Amino acid sequence: MSDRNAMLDVAGLRKSFGSLEVLRGIDLSVAPQELVFVIGPSGSGKSTLLRCCNRLEEPDEGSIRVDGVELLDPKTDINAMRRRIGMVFQSFNLYPHMTVLSNVTLALRKALGKGRAEAREIGEAALARVGLADKVDAYPAQLSGGQQQRAAIARAVALEPKIMLFDEPTSALDPELVGSVLAVMRELREAGMTMVVVSHEMRFARDAADRVVFMDHGAIVEQGPPEQVFGAPEHARTRSFLADFAA
Questions:
Q1: What is the rounded CA–CA span in Å between residue 135 and residue 53?
Q2: Tally of CB atoms within 10 A around 196
Q3: pLDDT tens-digit map of 49-97
Q4: Rounded CA gap, 172 and 177, in Å?
Q5: How many CB atoms lie within 10 A of CB 69?
Q6: In sequence order, what are the residues at sequence separation of 6 or more whose Cβ sits closer than 8 angstroms to the Cβ of residue 53?
Q7: 3-state helix, strand, coil in the chain (%, to 5)
Q8: pTM for this one?
Q9: Integer-rounded Cα radius of gyration of the chain
Q10: How many angstroms separate the CA atoms of 150 and 137, rounded?
Q11: Name one Pfam family in it (predicted).
Q12: How many whole angstroms separate alpha carbon 3 and alpha carbon 29?
C-alpha cells in the first residue's frame, strides 16, 4: 500500500533490459529522516532500483513518489525533482580541470542560479562539513580517493536535497579510505538526512541503518531492523547471503 507521508514511495516497480527482468514489482517506502540500507548479491537489482528513483533508468511499470511528487507523471519537471534527490555513485564524477570548490558550486550556479559569492559560501560550508575545508582550491587529482568521494558528497549536499541515494559509495576506495566516507555518511544520518544506501559495508549497515532491505533476483526478500535481519533473518536466502559476511 502506498504511503503518502513517505519521503520516497516506490510501488509496483518493474524494469527489464530486453528479456532480463531486473526489478520484479518492488514496493518500498522510506520515511523522512530514515536511513535504509539495501543489500544483496551482485545482479539483484539494487543499483537499478536506485537509478530508477531519479529516472536515470526509466521504469517499465510502477510508481515513484519523492516528497509527494510522482516522478513518472509526464507533467513532472524531472530536472527540478533531481535537484531534490542527491545521488552519489561509486565513481566520483568530478571534473578534473576544475577545482574542488568549482565542482561543488557548478550546479548551484547553473541549476539554481546562485550568484558566484553565494555559491562559494554554500560550497565552502558543504566542503567543511565533509572535512575538506582546506581543499577548496585543490584539483581532484591532488586528492585521495576518499577525499574525492567526500567532495562528491559535498556537491550533492550543497543542493540541500530532500533525500540522498548512495550507490556503492565506498566500493572504489582502498580499505583504509573507507572510514572517512562512512564518517561523513554517519554525520548526515545524525543530522536527519533521509538516505537510501546500496553497499556491502555490512558493519556500517548494522551500526547505522534504521532498516535493512535484502534483495535477490529483482525482488525484496526480507526487510527489517538491522538486529533482526543480521541477527535472526527469516529467510534461508538471507541467511546464506549473510553467512559470507559473518565476522
A1: 32
A2: 26
A3: 999 999 999 999 999 999 999 999 999 999 999 999 999 998 889 999 9
A4: 10
A5: 15
A6: 8, 10, 64, 66, 71, 85, 165, 196
A7: 40, 25, 40
A8: 0.94
A9: 18
A10: 15
A11: ABC_tran
A12: 7
Q: Does residue 187 contact residue 129 with C-beta atoms inside 8 Å? A: yes
Beta bridge partners of 70: 65
Helix (H, G, I), strand (E, B), or coil: what is residue 146?
helix
Q: How far apart are CA 144 and CA 150, in angstroms?
A: 10
Q: Residue 99 has which C-alpha cell? A: 577545482
Q: Is 152 helix (H, G, I), strand (E, B) or coil?
A: helix
Tell me which amino acid residue 137 is.
D
- Distance between CA atoms of 122 and 216, rounded to whole angstroms? 40
- Please answer whether residues 153 and 89 qualify as being in contact, where contact means their C-beta atoms are separated by less than 8 angstroms: no
Nearest to 179 by CA among 213, 139, 149, 155: 149
Separation of alpha carbons 134 and 146, rounded Å: 15
Over residues 148-189, the pLDDT tens digits come to 999 999 999 999 999 999 999 998 888 888 999 999 998 999
- The CB density around residue 164, as the number of other CB atoms within 10 Å, is 22
Give the pLDDT mean for 97-122.
Answer: 95
Amino acid in position 19 = S
Core vs surface per residue 74-96: b (16+ CB within 10 A) or e? eeeeeeebbbbbbbbbbebebee
Distance CA 186, CA 181 (A): 9
Q: What is the dihedral of CA 64, 66, 161, 140, to 10 degrees?
A: 0
- Full DSSP string of 134-183: GGTT--GGGS-HHHHHHHHHHHHHTT--SEEEEESTTTTS-HHHHHHHHH
Residue 156, SS3?
Answer: helix
What sign does the dihedral 114-119-125-127 (CA atoms) show?
A: positive
